Amino acid sequence: MLENKIMRVLNNKRNKTPPVWLMRQAGRYLKEYRDVREKAGGFLDLCYNPELAKEVTLQPIRRFGFDAAILFADILLLPQALGRKLWFETGEGPRLNPILGRKDIDNLQNIDVMNGFLENIYETVRIVRSELSEEKTLIGFAGAPWTVATYMIAGKGGDDQKAAKVYMTRNPEDFRMLIDKLTLATIEYLSEQIKAGAGVVKIFDSWAGALGGTYFKNYVYEPIKKISQEIKKRHPEAKVIAFPRGCGANYKSFCDLKFVDCIALDSTVPPPWIKKEVQNIKAIQGNLDPIHLVTGGDELLRQIDYITDNYNKGPYIFNLGHGITPDADPRNVEILLKRLSQ
Ligand code: 1CP
Description:
Blueprint: H1 5-10, H2 31-40, H3 43-47, H4 50-64, E1 68-70, H5 77-81, E2 86-89, E3 93-96, H6 102-106, H7 111-117, H8 119-131, E4 137-143, H9 145-154, H10 162-170, H11 172-196, E5 200-205, H12 213-234, E6 239-244, E7 262-264, H13 271-279, E8 283-288, H14 292-295, H15 297-311, E9 316-320, H16 330-341
Parallel strand pairs: 1-4, 4-5, 5-6, 6-7, 7-8, 8-9
Antiparallel strand pairs: 2-3
The protein binds coproporphyrinogen I.
């Protein structure tokens, strides 16, 4: 098989110019996405419709020629497949019926039921892969157990993980049970995506930065270690990217994860520090602040150059430090791509 630009990085090699894709690259900043989304009905209808989900997965590749497509789905489909109720409040975001106690954790569905529920997602992976050229990587993904647990316990998103922390400290045994169940379910979910054609899987731990010390070790580091290890055991050729967002100095500890091939960075970690402490051990991905795709101008160019100047001696994938926002200007994405190819 062809070793495309992203696979080169994940094999720890560098490219003349960095490969690039953007977190949340399919989304509301694109008119063609808004059109398909309207046709689909709701956001979840779009996720579970393989033809339409394929379309929106491929839209940013057609428009910009990114080096990777990322499956169009959501990290919250997994708890839904495990039996929790999920819906989206217009203008507000995701809602779930919150986990209230041990019974709710005991009652989570088994893996066969989960996989049956997610069959259309695997079908999207199959058809995207069949329409994508070998130069492009297809990335599958899941939320990490800790991040998914925060939504399952609070019943909503936002930047306050207090409900999950209260549950974790008051009911440590139940919480451990939930994390263990999510870890096993995530292994199966990612494994099915790989079987369907995803060459790379990314584990999003968007709220990793809310935990420190032994909590970080037990609920962020260890579950990702277990997931990556099992994925590599089952699929030695697959690659794993981990995104412990906001974890600061703990990024360094992720270098010890033997089965993680690339560490995705948020915008707060300084490139010179990453270059010295992380990139000489592992391939990295990141970390332009998404605000620059809204504001553009000379500052956008300066910030792109700052990142490339720091990272271009080693293996790296250019990306944002978090998802592109609906108010980003697609013309700034073009400016970014042009700058990177120079
Ligand atoms: O169309 C819409 O209005 C829905 C917006 C939207 C989209 C486009 C949501 C709701 N999810 C998605 C798709 C999505 N989500 C993708 C695939 C598309 C792509 O990247 O191109 C991926 C990888 C995700 C991952 C995801 N969902 C994360 C992890 C990454 C991150 O942003 O930190 C998280 C935390 C979610 C939960 C979620 N889903 C949607 C929203 C608005 C949120 C965040 C809610 C919150 O915490 O406030």
